[in-house]
């Protein structure tokens, strides 16, 4: 029987875990783990845990020269404007790999790579529609770290001949990962005439897109993994409140928000954009299970 190709997962959180059963049918899956309980759970599912921590390069020796497809979803650290974790991961993978000519690279079987980035790299667009051809103009340090990771991965892919797909994800939601805590705290939202546009994707749809990108992603291609219906941020919180049987948040002016809301929340409110997803549907051929947040909430009832 033909051996399964290898796949390395760096960052097996909620979304990638949803994709794991599908991936295990098609790959010999290796997963970076930092905790023994996580390793035991993944081993029971059929994956091969590798105890390693991207914040501690000495633990990454087992990745040296590993020839495998890659799913990278480890978020950058919370400091600085460069993604040191991605740099350490790529350095470990490239260690002890001899330099090869173009003909040797082309002769190798395809080992695709998928990176889960963020739509935050677009920055504020004042509500305009954007697609993947729109330039990256990150406004926050967290988005600049993601943009730096994308650049690092592009350079690595060009050097190694790897097909790389970059999936830019917006706010991810699912049952059990809704912003109910913020509503329960009584945090207000911006009144409609001043509100920002936001984009969403269900965790299952993002997991599905990751799987398809391994096989259908075009080299060095970026994909907006968003649903069909951007919404005003306040409307999103109203939807969550209604579904959770909580009072809708109070509405305030943007000027009042500068005093009443935290800098972290304000940084999200200062970014307004609507994202197109034609490339997701046409090239990856993703059929969204939840094309709108309204369709998801309707299913709950």
UniProtKB/TrEMBL annotation:
<dbReference type="InterPro" id="IPR001509">
    <property type="entry name" value="Epimerase_deHydtase"/>
</dbReference>
<dbReference type="InterPro" id="IPR051783">
    <property type="entry name" value="NAD(P)-dependent_oxidoreduct"/>
</dbReference>
<dbReference type="Pfam" id="PF01370">
    <property type="entry name" value="Epimerase"/>
</dbReference>
<dbReference type="InterPro" id="IPR036291">
    <property type="entry name" value="NAD(P)-bd_dom_sf"/>
</dbReference>
<protein>
    <submittedName>
        <fullName>NAD-dependent dehydratase</fullName>
    </submittedName>
</protein>
<feature type="domain" description="NAD-dependent epimerase/dehydratase">
    <location>
        <begin position="105"/>
        <end position="225"/>
    </location>
</feature>
